[in-house]
Design brief:
The protein is mainly beta and 876 residues long. Helix content is 10%, strand content 35%. The N and C termini lie far apart (156 Å).
């Protein structure tokens, strides 16, 4: 069931694959092959399926995809149409037959047409004969026919008589230009001739029968080398033995050729050996060889009548008899600094001398070393390698190295290792190095012409392995040349010259060089140091040595302000920081650095920075005055804190408030015209100082005032107590408040000539009520007769305050005028007792007298009030 479905599917696919293609038509000839340039004629025949609706007139032709012109059409009958194409030159083309009906083209049939040439006569017939194995002949067919061509090779036996045609002995057919006969159809004969015939659809061509003797075309397989041996006791000789192949034409003379070569290039040589084909094994002695040298040998042979050599046999190798090495090795050393006390590492290395021919095969090396001053301590090491590390002390050593093999030892190579405290002389004065197209050339001058041998040492700058160094001995010359191929490009090399005198090595002269340079692989990375207002410090690090690719000659610093022009500065290669000056303040810059060598320059990554708005000088210029001002203010504040009481006394002395006074209680019903009482209230007890006025000076003149002051000072100095006044105290029966008054007129002498004082509640408490004296009444003071005002005491009873007495101060006889400069010029003071005094102050003994402390002029902390306050406080 499954297979039936597959067949149905295949039929459906084939039916829809090309619905326009219908096979009910034919074209002939089918797939024609014609001669190039000839005329092509084809016929297209319609089947019954198309008639009677279509006929030959509906047929059209196409060559590949191009429509063929109607003049090439020919209608043979109603169902046959032909096409003729002249000078057909296509090597291959498709011709298609269509019907065109009602404007639609329908493919009927198509065919492939090929064009080509007749075969040429085969030429250059040649054959190779492998005896009793194979006979193969080759020829050239000439021009390519582009059509299927068949070749036939005829092997014919020529008759003894020349008039008789040769008879065919064998036929070989092929479609290529070669054909072979195989055993047993390859008999040996000297009378064969060979003929080749070529044929295709257009024709055929045959060559002549070419006679080819079999012995002239013989080629046999290569010989087999059996052995290559050296003969004991005979130097420079190898014996080669080989075996000939079995299938060779018998009784023929042969020639064999031996090729032998050493391991050195261009050393191949040949030897010729004559023999007969009847010899199955042959041998030959190769002489004149080099001692202790390995040789490779190969052989080929040929029949002397033939023109074909056999292939070369497989190579085999062998070595000649050994000989002791004839040349000493090139010996060198690298001395490392002492890592521990009394020990140092000496890296010893050597190489055989590259002589030609070689001085002998080396099996190993023997190293001997001993202290220069103690030969008994000689030590020996053997090595198959060409390097060794010796651990020596600080003394001088003599080191020798010999190469050895089974035949003996080479001459000694001797080198002296100096002691650690030995100073070697500097013989090389100058060194120069340069490169040419092919070589590195180094020249030097020496201060001692007798030195004729030198060692040139070179190694990569980054090489850390002492055994990675190269060296070469130079004799009788002060210059050295080496091929550039021995050096890597873009790598820095250290090259040193060591003078040799005897077995000692003098101090080297070293130099660095690049064989070839290119621009650095990377640029320096810029960094900013100290920023300023108009300058900045740019810093960078050296490029790593493996990326310099040449000697750095200088650095170029490129910097550009934002939206500005790029500038640059160039510095030497040993400079790694530079200060850019004359920059714009408070501006963003971009900076990058280019490292330059002989081949070019490479820039590093850019760095941005912004200059400062102010530099240090600007900051100092602004900060110093501010700092000094702050220090001054701080000092002033500290001074004020420490001396606040002194400053308060001097600048802001305490002014007493009469309303706060405890000496007297002011009448509340005082006259509203009294300017002093206007500023006093019973509750707040405050004074409006704008209403306080001072009487015009009513005291004596300055001379008299001075006498009063002097009397006052003398009086105080003599008594030292409060003897200035005689105070009588009288108690009142009604318990009213006591008013105190000086009884004697000398009391004026005890007070300041310029101020009158009233003591308030706080002053009384602070002075421990020393100034309070109870009295019944205040006697009027006797004033000086000349120029003083007279005071009269009047007792007035206040209607609102029963039995209270107040002090009434009468104005001077002369009219008092307001003078602000006499505010503190009162010569007396009065003490008023307040009912708020402490009880113990009111009940003081009558006989007790209290000394008042002297009052000083203009002393801070003393409460005072001018006299005009009392002058205006007179009761009604």
């Amino acid at each position: 069931m499954f297979h039936c479905l597959i067949w149905v599917f295949v039929l459906l696919c084939s039916s829809v694959a090309d619905e326009n293609y219908i096979r009910d038509a034919d074209i002939f000839p089918s797939s024609p092959e014609i001669e190039r340039g000839s005329t092509l004629r084809l016929f297209c025949v319609l089947g019954k399926h198309y008639t009677p609706h279509r006929n030959a007139s509906h047929i059209i032709w196409k060559l590949n995809h191009e429509l063929i012109a109607q003049e090439n059409y020919n209608i043979v009958n109603e169902t046959v149409s032909s096409i003729t194409i002249h000078n057909f030159t296509y090597s291959k083309a498709h011709v298609k037959c269509f019907t065109k009906y009602l404007g639609k083209e329908q493919l009927l049939v198509h065919t492939e047409v090929k064009s080509g040439f007749r075969p040429d006569i085969p030429e250059n017939i040649s054959c190779i004969y492998y005896f009793n194995d194979q006979l193969t002949c080759n020829w050239t067919s000439g021009r390519e026919t582009n059509l299927s061509t068949n070749y036939t090779l005829y092997r014919k036996m020529m008759a003894v008589r020349s008039m008789t045609p040769p008879s065919t002995m064998g036929i070989c057919e092929s479609k290529v230009e070669s054909c072979s006969f195989y055993h047993p159809h390859v008999p040996y004969s000297s009378s064969f001739c060979f003929q080749v015939k070529a044929e295709n659809i257009l024709g055929e061509a045959s060559s002549d029968c070419v006679p080819i003797p079999m012995e002239k075309i013989e080629k046999f397989k290569p010989p087999e080398i059996l052995s290559i041996k050296k003969i004991t006791g005979i130097k420079q000789l190898l014996k080669v033995t080989w075996k000939m192949p079995e299938k060779i034409i018998p009784s023929e003379d042969l020639t064999c050729e031996l090729q032998y070569r050493s391991v050195y290039p261009n050393s191949s040589k040949f030897a010729t050996v004559l023999m007969n084909s009847s010899e199955k094994i042959a041998s030959y002695n190769l002489t004149g060889l080099w001692d202790s040298t390995e040789y490779s040998v190969a052989i080929r042979c040929i029949n002397n009548k033939s023109k074909f050599w056999s292939e070369w046999s497989t190579e085999k190798t062998a070595s000649t008899e050994e000989k002791a090495p004839s040349e000493k090795v090139d010996l060198w050393r690298v001395i490392e600094p002492s890592r521990s006390a009394g020990h140092r590492s000496v890296h010893l290395m050597w190489k055989p001398v590259n002589n030609f021919p070689p001085s002998g095969r080396v099996l190993g090396y023997k190293i001997q070393y001993l202290p220069e001053k103690n030969a008994a301590l000689q030590m020996t090491n053997n090595s198959t390698d060409k390097k060794i590390i010796l651990l020596l002390n600080e003394d001088a050593y003599i080191i020798s190295v010999v190469a050895y093999n089974s035949a003996g030892n080479s001459p000694e190579a001797i080198l002296r290792i100096p002691s650690t405290d030995e100073k070697t002389p500097q013989i090389i004065e100058t060194v120069s190095i340069f490169t040419t197209n092919e070589e590195v050339v180094m020249e030097w001058t020496a201060s001692k012409p007798e030195v004729t041998e030198y060692v040139v040492e070179w190694f990569e700058e980054l090489e850390t392995d002492p055994f990675g160094r190269s060296w070469q001995y130079v004799s009788n010359s002060t210059n050295w040349k080496s091929n550039k191929k021995n050096f890597k490009p873009f790598v820095c090399y250290n090259i040193s010259v060591y003078p040799l005198y005897g077995n000692q090595v003098a101090a080297p002269y070293s130099i660095q060089t690049y064989v070839q340079e290119k621009k650095p692989s990377e640029g320096p990375v810029a960094d900013t140091g100290i920023l300023g207002k108009n300058e900045v410090m740019i810093k960078w690090k050296e490029i790593s040595k493996d990326k310099r690719n040449g000697f750095i000659r200088n650095y170029t610093i490129f910097y550009k302000p934002e939206n500005g022009e790029e500038l640059n500065e160039t510095v030497n290669s040993d400079v790694l920081h530079y200060r850019l000056k004359s920059l714009q303040a408070n501006t963003q810059y971009t900076v990058y650095i280019m490292a330059n060598n002989k081949a070019g320059g490479t820039s590093g990554e850019p760095k941005t920075f912004k200059t400062l708005k102010f530099n240090k000088e600007d900051v100092v210029f602004f900060a110093l005055p501010i700092g000094l001002s702050m220090l001054f203010l701080l000092g002033l504040w500290i001074t004020c804190v420490l001396k606040k009481h002194t400053f308060k006394k001097v600048c802001w002395p305490d002014i007493p408030n009469p309303a706060e006074s405890v000496a007297v209680e002011w009448p509340l019903d005082a006259s509203p015209n009294n300017s002093f009482l206007k500023g006093v209230t019973s509750e707040a007890r405050t004074i409006d100082f704008e209403d306080i006025s001072v009487l015009e000076h009513c005291f004596p003149e300055e001379s008299q005032e001075g006498s009063l002051l002097m009397n006052y000072e003398n009086h105080v100095s003599e008594n030292h107590v409060s003897e200035c006044t005689d105070v009588d105290t009288k108690g009142t029966n009604n318990g009213d408040k006591t008013i105190l008054h000086n009884e004697e007129n000398e009391v004026a002498k005890c007070f300041s000539p310029s101020m009158a004082y009233i003591i308030n509640d706080q002053d009384i408490r602070s002075q421990m009520h020393l100034a309070l004296i109870t009295a019944k009444e205040i006697q009027p003071m006797e004033m000086l007769e000349h120029g003083f005002c007279e005071f009269q005491q009047t007792s007035i009873k206040n209607e609102e305050n029963d039995n209270k007495e107040v002090l009434k101060l009468e104005d001077c006889s002369e009219k008092a005028l307001f003078n602000p400069y006499l505010k503190n010029s009162v010569k007396t003071r009065e003490f008023l007792i307040s009912e708020n005094l402490p009880q113990h102050s009111k009940n003081e003994p009558k006989s007790q007298s209290t000394m008042l402390p002297p009052f000083q002029q203009n002393v801070a902390g003393q409460s005072y009030v001018t006299l005009d306050m009392f002058g205006l406080a007179t009761a009604h």
